[in-house]
Amino acid sequence: RTPRSGSEGQAIRRAGVVAGSALLVVTVLSVFAFIVVIKGLVVHGDAAKTASNILDSEDRFRIAVACFALIAVFDVVVAWALRVFFAPVSGLVSNLAAAVRVAYAAVFLVATAHLIVASQLLMGNETRAGFTTSELKAQGLLQIDTFTAVWNAGLVLFGFDLLLLAYLAIRSSYVPTWLGILLVLSGCGYLIDSFGLIFVRDYTASVANFTFIGEALFMLWL
């Protein structure tokens, strides 16, 4: 339904701005932490080179880990703001979408913990627990790979959240229907990639790289 004018309409507009702003912060932090830092430093299959890169850019790596932790916090803000934004459409579905987003944030925070462990293994005492330097480097790379694996698993929740938001957007009278349709595609993209990693050996496709446009446009519209 269309929200009433006055205080309800103003609350919805404010919630939309908060959600869009928080999503923009999440996007900026993600680009820096994952694309610039993690992808720039991690050499898959080469623990020694990865360890060398991280040790040479220790501060940058630690800042990236902090950014990931902040992303989880801002995802909770997004969950709250979108719950308020879509409450006039369906209180039940908006609450469910918020709960799923918070659950995703929790999973992402667990994934980030593996990066903290990786930093401790790669930057700590070389004789820790009796492991050799090469063994510590291998375990550090394994922790980074685990971060990615847990994050990918959590994207199942993220994709489901986008589908719920798409339903709310399409049902509403104040969000363009085409945005809801694009959110459906975005959600399906994440689900395809996540389940592809589970069921397909050596899955290398990335459907979400092409369907994320719905998220980006929704963020800008908010």
In brief:
With 222 residues, the protein is an all-alpha fold. It has eight helices and no strands.
Structural class category: mainly alpha
Euclidean distance between termini CA atoms: 18 Å
Number of helices: 8
Largest sheet: none
The percent range for helix content is: over 70%
Uncertain stretches? none
Q: How much of the sequence is in beta strands?
A: under 5%
Q: What would the principal axes of the Cα set say about the shape?
A: elongated
Question: How would you describe the overall organization of this protein?
Answer:
Helix content is 82%, strand content 0%. It is elongated. The protein has eight helices and no strands. The longest helix is centred in the C-terminal third of the chain and has 39 residues, at 133-171. It is mainly alpha-helical and 222 residues long. Helix 3 (58-86) packs antiparallel against helix 4 (91-123). The model has no long low-confidence stretch (mean pLDDT 90).
